Structures are given as structure tokens and as C-alpha cells.
Amino acid sequence: MASKSEPDEKTPLSQVVESNNDDSEEELQGCSGTAPCNPKSCLHRYFPVLVLICFLSFGSYFCYDNPAALQDTMIRELDISEGQFMAFYSFYSWPNVVLCMFGGYLIDRLFGVRLGAIIFGLFVTVGQVIFALGSLFNLYALMCVGRFVFGIGGESLAVAQNTYAVKWFQGKELNMVFGLQLSFSRVGSTVNMNVMQPLYNYIDQNIHGYKCLGIALFVGAGMCVFSLICAIVLSFFDKRADRVLKRKQISSEEMIKFRDILTFPLSTWLISIICVAYYVAVFPFIGLGLVFFEMKFGLTPTSANAVNSLVYIVSAVASPVFGFLIDKIGKNVFWVIIGIVVTLGCHMMLAFSFINPYVPMVIMGLSYSVLASALWPMVSLIIPGHQLGTAYGIMQAIQNLGLAVIALVAGIIVDQNGYLILEVFFMAWLCVALIAGVLLYLIDANKGGKLNLSAKARAIEKLKLDAEKSSN
After folding, report:
1. How far is CA 52 from CA 46, 94, 465, in A?
2. Segment Disordered: which positions (predicted)?
3. Which tens digit of pLDDT belongs to each residue from 57-107?
4. What's the chain's average pLDDT?
5. Nearest CA to 181 among 240, 230, 128, 248?
6. Cβ-contact 311, 286 below 8 angstroms
7. What secondary structure does DSSP assign to 132-181, as a single string?
8. Which residues, 6 or more positions from 115, have their beta carbon under 8 angstroms from its beta carbon?
9. C-beta separation of 158 from 60 below 8 A
10. Greater confidence, 250 or 352?
11. Of 196, 193, 458, which is closest to residue 312 (Cα–Cα)?
């Protein structure tokens, strides 16, 4: 239990006492106004806080696509079908149909973002260890259990990451921060795509078969431990900042009631539909992309992995750039629609032409970066701060319901009908996302266009709201 001078995240504001003033002064002795140790400084927010937020999901993203990086190797060494292979993605997503929504609720109501991030980071680490052990002993069922446990923490950890970002950077920087944290996460995916197969080949010189695969997967567990350490260190800085800055805590009357979900505006649900319909056309495609590029374009496994990782490589660089530009320009809904349309065009090129696959995959990486940088921050514009964890959790839950089902269906389509039908299937989902995007634009415009305001208009509106609050 926190002392009176050290309120925790869930302490009502009425319980925060004046003794914090003395503690704050003691904390800041030796810290100048611009020092990295001073939570009042901009430098502290960017380093170390933003760096730690960005690395919070690094291990999770590195391990999520371990199967994609080793697709043909896993299928061969474990003697499984494409459908069984895609079950690794499905088992990751199934727990998050419910749990990441409750994860957001628990972050808002019970754990707080600090403890929540550490708990979910532990689930990710343990899940990856179980997955690696299953491969080491050639136990397919144990590998599925590992992916299930890994999934329990994976998406909820992303919810905690989003909540941290909003807590520290809500305002004009938020789009850039969302883009930057996405960038670092995709660095994890990119490293995975380009390291795991060479690592497997190196280990295979001495240890062969599924045991070699299991040892390679243990490298991912090490990455998860790294992210868990980041969560622990970040919790220290966040708690210290709450104390020093005397940041307002959620009062008891502001606490979310679970039934409040029913009062979320229609725009929230349309954003969730866009999220699921878009992401099911990207992640399952990457999960199956290695063999697709080998078969259609005649690439070697190493070259196919390089092409398959281009979406992650490009988004790692482009996401913070587009986030910064969207912060300066605004018009979030417009950028979301652009991202969907361009991604649809990329899938059409891959399905119906033999254009060098580097071209559509680079463009897809750019469009994915635009959409992700514009889509996720919109939730903070329409949902109160004390409900954000739950709102992001609902988005993740709906997204994972789609990914869980589509991952299985995609594997079955490849087994029975091949990759051309699979591409048509993905294009249909992008059309659903496009329809939801247009509806979001129309509904938002009817209500004053809050989500699609320019950055200048949004700043003026914020000044008006602040003036009204100060007058009251």
C-alpha cells in the first residue's frame, strides 16, 4: 500500500496531501530544469521515458512473427500443414478476443498502467519460453499452449503501451509518439524476419531438426526479458513523475463502470471495424508471405524473408515521420482512407501482376504507416482519459477476433485454393475497411468534424475548451 506521501495510480485526488511538496523538492535536488532526471523537463519525457515506452513491446513484436520468419522450416521440421502453422497465429489471437478488453479495464480500474505492463510482460516472456520448449521436444500441442499464453500478454501489453503514450504525450505530440512507438515495435519485427533464418542455419551446423528450431526460438525469449526490464524501469520513472509533478489521479467518481462501454460513440466502433478489417489483410498475409514469394516470384528463402519484412522495415522508418506530419496537418480520417486505398492497390498488384514484389511491399509499408499513425490517436479525441485503457482494449479485442478467425481461414484457403484466392479474400476485407472509413468521415462531419479537423483548428478548439474550464 502506498504511503500518504507516495500516492499510487489509483489514489483519489482528494487523498493527495501537501507533504508531496517537500518530497518533490528532495527528489529534484541536483536536477536542473533541463536535466534528464527532472520529470518537469522535455528532455526527460523523450529520454528515458519515450525510449522505454518504445521498447516496451519490442520483445513481443520480435516473437509474434517468429513463425513467419521460419515458415517453411517449421512446416518441414514439425511435419505440419499450412492450416496447423497458421494456428500459431490463431492461438495468439483467441485469448485477446476477451482478455485484452479486460486488460484495458484492469489497467484503468485495478492494476494501473505500471503494474499492468509488468504483469502482461511476464505473460509474454513465459509464453515464448513454453513455445520454444514445445519445439525443442517436438510437442505441437505445447507450442500452441505457449502461443496462447504469449497472446494473453501480447495485446494487453500493447494497450498498456498506448495508455503510457497518452498519459505522457497527450496533445500535439501524440500522433508522432504513436508513430515512433510503432516504429520501434516494427524494428523488432524486422530484426526477427532477417535474423531468425540465418540464426537457425548457424545452429543447424551442430544441432539439427526440431531441436535446432527450439534453440532458435529461445533467442526470442531473451528479447522478451529485455522488454520486461524496460517495463520495470519505466514504472519507476512513471511513479516518480506522478509524485514530483503531482499529476492528477483518477478520482472515484471518474472511475469507469464497465457498462459505460455501451455509451461509447458510434465513431469508436467504426474505428474498431477499420482496425480489424485492415489488419487482417496485413498480418495474416505476412504470416504466409514467405512461401508466397518463393512460389510466385521464384525467390530464395533469404530473399523471400527480406521482401516479406519490407512492410516492417519501411514502417519502422516512416511511422514517426508520418506521425509528425499528421500532428502538423491533422485530417486524421482523410489519412486513414488514403492508407486503406493504397494498401488495396498493393494487394491488387501482388495478386494480378508480376511487378517486382519489392515495389508493392514498400508502398504497403508506407500506407500501413500512414494508417496506423492516424488511426490509433483518434480514440483519445473522443474517449475520456480515464476510459482510454478500456477503449484501446476493446479495439484490440475486436482486432484479435478477426485475426484469430482469419488466420485459420487463410491457412485453409492456401491449402485448398492457393494464394490467388487468398489475395482476393484480403482485398474484400480492405473494401470493408474502406466502407467503414467513408462512414466514419460522414458521421464525424455530421457532428462537427472533430476527428478530421486540421491541426490549426484543433489547437484553437483546445484553447477554447481550456478557457471555458478556467472560467468555471
Report:
1. 9, 28, 32
2. 1-30
3. 999 999 999 999 999 999 999 999 999 999 999 999 998 787 766 766 677
4. 86
5. 230
6. yes
7. HHHHHTT-HHHHHHHHHHHHHHHHHHHHHHHHHHHHHH-STTHHHHHHHH
8. 235
9. yes
10. 352
11. 193
C-alpha cell at 60: 513481443
Gyration radius of the chain over CA positions: 22
- The 8-class DSSP code of residue 450 comes to G
**Residue type at position 404:** A
Distance of alpha carbon 163 from alpha carbon 60, whole angstroms: 17
What are residue 105's phi and psi, to 5 degrees?
-65, -45
Q: How does DSSP classify residue 255?
A: S
pTM exceeding the 0.85 threshold for the entire prediction: no
Q: Please report which helix (H) or strand (E) contains residue 332, including its range.
A: helix 332-352
**H-helix or E-strand spanning residue 321:** helix 310-329
Distance CA 419, CA 294 (A): 12
Q: Tell me the three state secondary structure of residue 2.
A: coil
Residues paired with 472 in a beta bridge: none
Question: Could you tell me the CA-to-CA distances from 283 to 83, 312, 399 in Å, in that order?
Answer: 15, 10, 11
Query: For the residues of 78-141, what is the DSSP string, one character each?
Result: HT--HHHHHHHHHHHHGGGGTHHHHHHHHHHHTSHHHHHHHHHHHHHHHHHHHHHHHHHTT-HH
- The residues that bridge with 454 in the sheet, in sequence order, are 330
Lookup: cell for 433: 475497411
Q: Which three cell numbers mark 245?
A: 509533478
Distance CA 418, CA 292 (A): 9
C-alpha cell, 349: 498488384
Chain centre to alpha carbon of residue 260:
24
Q: Distance between CA 189 and CA 195 in Å, rounded?
A: 10
Exposed, middle or buried, 147 (CB in 10 Å: 0-12/13-18/19+)? buried
Q: Is 330 helix (H, G, I), strand (E, B) or coil?
A: strand
CA distance 398 to 53: 24
Asked if residues 332 and 374 have their Cβ atoms less than 8 Å apart, the reply is yes
For residues 210 and 200, the answer to whether their CB atoms sit within 8 Å is no
Q: Which residues contact 396 (CB under 8 A, 6 or more apart)?
A: 96, 100, 101, 103, 104, 155, 156, 158, 159
The pLDDT of 162-185, averaged and rounded, is 81
Place of cell 530544469: 33
